[in-house]
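ok here's Hydrolase, seq below lol
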Amino acid sequence: MFRSLLIPLMLFISLISYSQNIESRKTYTTTKTEIAPRIDGVLTEKVWLEADEAKDFVMVEPGDGDPIPKSHETIVKVLYDNEAVYIAAYMMEDEPTKIMKQFTQRDNMGQSEFLLVDINTYDDGENQTRFIVTAAGTQADARISGENEDYNYNVVWESAVFQDDEGWYVEMKIPYSALRFPDKPQQEWGIQFFRQITHLNQNYVWNYIDKSVGQISQYTGLLKGISNIDPPVRLSLYPYTSAALDIYNGESEANFSAGLDLKYGINDSFTLDMTLVPDFGQTAYDNVELNLGPFEQVFGENRAFFTEGTELFTKGDLFYSRRVGNSPIGFNDAQRSKLENEEILDNPDKTDLINALKVSGRTDRGLGIGFFNSITNETKAVYRDTITGETRSKITEPFANYNIFVLDQRFNKNSSLTLINTNVTRNGNFRDANVSGFLFDVYNKENSFNFKGQAKMSNINLPDQNVTGFASSLSIERTKGNFRYGVAHEFANETYDINDLGISQINNYNNFNWETSYQIFEPQGNLNKYRIQVYGQHLRRYDPNISVNTGAGGSVFIVTRERFAYGGSFEVNSEFRDFFEPRSQDSFVLYRANAGLSAWISTDYRKRFAYDLRLYFEKYHRSSRNFLSVNFEPRFRFTDKLDMIFEFDYDLQKDRPSFVTKDNSEIIFGVRDLKSLENSLKGNYNFNTKQAINLSFRHFWSTATFSDNEYSVLDKDGRLIPTEYNINEQNDPNANFNIWNLDLSYRWQFAPGSEAVLLYRNAIFNRDKLSSLGYRDSLENLFDMPARHNLSLRIVYFIDYNRVRHLFQS
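and the structure came out like this:
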């Protein structure tokens, strides 16, 4: 199947793709310095005074190409040596008291003004490394792939800022260990400089960006002059040690651990990242909710190793990193395997990660290569016979090996072809999985059209059989001008399954989508920007080939000159055949046609007080069923060091026909009200850009209440036939769900790349069937439950091999 698709596809791509032609591309030629400048933000050293200038910045937002005024003239200079690239920036300001400086920690710019530098060492129009320094001195760095920004990427580099009556200044040292570049004597890199003047709500760039065509990453200037560099060995070590005290239900447990993360530059282009004896004890808590639906709840990744530099491995959406170290594959079966006179002493809900590594990089011909591997330990459930006292164990997850291999070829500075394979191998007579994908993302010569597609094949090896599945997608989109449009198709057969290392909530679909939009790229009247979109969809089941749903809608997004944003959306849908709510193969429940309406506003974040408000209402035709959602998020910046964000979220779902249980051969449904209320608070006090106290709090309460005597049996046509269903204590479907999380931490970056984190964590959880209780009574019940208290200290120290080597030599 892949072979039959590949040949015509390659022929098609060769006909539509030509090299990109961006006119008037600026060029900066740097020079090598024998004396490295001191990184202090004071740009009076001779090497800077003699360096060439990158200037004549032009507006990118809100206008289009207007020259920067003399009152805010911006000049950037670049030098290099065998160790690093050095950047100096002069940013003039005729009213320096208006320069916004908010103290924040790494990767959080807040409302500060900043200088941004994008470096594309392969000059391929796609893969860039971003470095940002704010007027307060905060650093941020990210990997950029097209329009995607990954701020989980962290490397070690130096910067400093300085301010006087004429403006503010930035000095940066970016070591080659923070970059990956081709191994050749003459380097030519794409580079872009970007200045945000927050108090004026204006942004300027060095190399002009035509926002109406293509992607911003395709508009870098050209950095020349770096030649014959002899970069040092790229070897960094991150040893850590951690200690924790856990107290729960009157019992305490102390833990101590140590481990090591390692980064090694195999050559100038490829880097090995490895974690040995990893420790994830201080990762942020998950936003767990009451989940009564047919799908698992999806959480974001909080473990640094699985978020840094993973842009190659996420191609094709086949890698859901939470699978590594997640619940054992036999976790739910452990309860069913319990014998009559047995009790479960231990059934771990997570597997232990032994180690993990990834190798990634790109050749000078634009070929990206990535390899990921991790190993998890064996996990067992332990049972005890209540009569004899004997114990036994059952393996719920054997030793497991997770692999990803990626080839990603960039060409024409705007297009790519990708091959990816993921593999999970479990020791013994367990389930194994293998998934392969072919992807293309191609623009035409004028950058006015994008052609994107995927073909993916899954293969599940079970003890008694192999199951193969297939999925594909294809989209064509106009990417130039004010008026844009696109069509897309998505397909998956009934056996497509990537859930051993990826995540796919549904399969067996054959869907069609279209959209069209109009947007502006220069201010009109009091509006800085607006976008109007209309879209539609037709969803079908692949087998059997029947309609699932047809819908259409529209949205509007508007931002004024005063940075007041507002908008809304509407949507109408036909009847919907839900094949997943019944939890039974080939069965579906037929939901009525509905219409939804939303509206939102967002005020100017530059002001000390700002807020976001979002409303959504959904109504079903000829039915009492409806849904209301209210989200309110005020924020207050007390000083440039202290800020807080509160979020209130309220959801009310009325009279939804919902799955209850399977009773013999019958599928029982009930009429359910689902109410959820969430309060969360995030507060930060920053002593400076290296030390801060952070507070994160969340309380989530939800109740599911089924109406009395309103139960039904699902028939083969998706209709619900009223029936009598007796409720008792064992089968009561009502639920009252309460969860409380509080994290209070002190974070100190005591040296470049090194930090200490002291964390206090408090967590309480309760779930029962008392859905009739109000908020206050339910909260009292929650506080009657035992609370988990955890105090931990984690210290990570950055060791650069070259500095250690020079220290011993001296």
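fwiw The helical segments are 2-16, 46-49, 331-336, 775-783, 801-809. kinda neat tbh
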